[in-house]
Design brief:
This protein is an alpha/beta fold. The protein folds into two domains: about 5-115 and about 270-305, Aldehyde Oxidoreductase, domain 3 (Alpha-Beta Complex), CATH 3.90.1170; about 125-265, Aldolase class I (TIM Barrel). It is built from 14 helices and twelve strands. The chain has helices at about 5-20, 25-30, 55-65, 90-95, 100-120, 140-150, 170-175, 175-185, 200-210, 220-230, 250-255, 265, 285-290, 305-310, and strands at about 35-45, 50, 70, 80, 85-90, 130, 165, 195-200, 215-220, 240, 260, 275-280. The strands form three sheets. It has a six-stranded parallel beta sheet with strand order 6-11-10-9-8-7. β8, α9 (about 200-210) and β9 (about 215-220) form a beta-alpha-beta unit. α5 crosses α6 (about 140-150), α8 (about 175-185) packs parallel to α9 (about 200-210) and α9 (about 200-210) packs parallel to α10. The two termini are about 20 Å apart.
């Protein structure tokens, strides 16, 4: 699956390149002939889920359009350690200049996809859907949520404008759940979904009476989650959130909730170890080796793109 490069992602890539290159890659410029071309293999050094090769391709495209990136493994595929995931071909100077920035994106996104895959596998057979949150690295949200999808998870809202989520501070300022929901309904379109966060069974009862579309059960222990499911009796989908980790997922799923959201999918993920090895290449043979460049497109974040936006 390809990734749509939004304007925000484009700005992030430009910032990352400027941060790393600074006034110039003196080592490559002073050592490597300008007309030398090379091919390199990118390896995932540890087992995990591949994500981010199209981003690496875009990094190189920004740096040197003549560079080609040839995927060897599809995005979202789980691989063993020391697996080659793509080849990079083109001018050797630019190949080395963009190496660290490109690998950083692949390492981070593959780490998120791998962590998500572990969580999804824990929930296999339960019918519970795994969601991410907005606890993402500033500027990286589109990419990190893409990585969650590559790991098999679903995206909750991308931003505050995606859906209405009335949280505890909103409720406190509005004077209660009913008042908060009423104020929102006066402004919201009929198509906009409304979710309310509750942290007690008393608040849950009030939320059920308000007619919202979804209820978030925040930081409830497992027995309380079970009571919440029994009280709701399937009237509204329930999302369990707060203090979620891999070891707790099955226990929470057994309560009967519909969704589990887990901020740790993004803020707690550890980057995978990714490497690049270069072999000097004859420029005359470059175009005959792998003429296709990786595709960057599709999977656009759109207002009506339910698959990409999740809830």
């Amino acid at each position: 699956m390809a990734i749509f490069i939004t304007q925000g992602v484009q700005s992030l890539l430009a910032l990352a390149l400027a941060e790393d290159i600074g006034r110039g890659d003196w080592t490559s410029e002073w050592m490597i002939p300008q007309d030398l071309t090379a091919t390199a293999t990118v390896w995932l050094k540890q087992a995990g889920v591949v994500a981010g090769v199209p981003v690496l391709a875009r990094v190189y495209r920004e740096l040197e359009p003549a560079i080609q990136v040839i995927p060897l493994v599809a995005e979202g595929v789980e691989v063993s350690e020391s697996t080659p995931i793509c080849r990079v071909l083109g001018p050797a100077r630019a190949l080395l200049t963009g190496e660290r920035v490109g690998l950083n994106f692949v390492a981070r996104l593959s780490g998120i996809a791998s962590q998500t895959r572990q969580a999804v596998q824990r929930l296999a057979g339960t019918g519970v859907q795994l969601l991410d949150t907005r606890k993402t690295t500033p500027g990286w949200r589109d990419l990190e949520k893409y990585a969650v999808r590559m790991g098999g998870g679903r995206n909750h809202r991308f931003g505050l404008d995606d859906m209405i989520l009335i949280k505890d501070n909103h409720i406190a300022l509005a004077g209660g759940i009913q008042a908060a929901v009423s104020q929102v309904r006066r402004q919201a379109a009929l198509s906009q979904r409304i979710e309310v966060e509750v942290d007690t069974l008393e608040q849950l009862a009030e939320a059920l009476d308000s007619g919202v579309h979804l209820i978030l059960l925040d930081n409830m222990d497992t027995p309380t989650l079970k009571k919440a499911v029994d009280l709701t009796q399937g009237r509204v989908p329930l999302e369990a959130s707060g203090n979620m980790n891999l070891d707790r997922l099955l226990e929470v799923a057994a309560t009967g909730v519909d969704y589990i959201s887990m901020g740790g999918l993004t803020h707690g993920a550890v980057s995978l170890d990714v490497g690049l090895e270069v072999v000097v290449w004859d420029s005359a043979n470059l175009d005959s080796v792998h003429p296709q460049a990786t595709h960057v497109g599709g999977c656009e974040r759109g207002v009506n793109d339910d698959a990409a936006r999740g809830l």
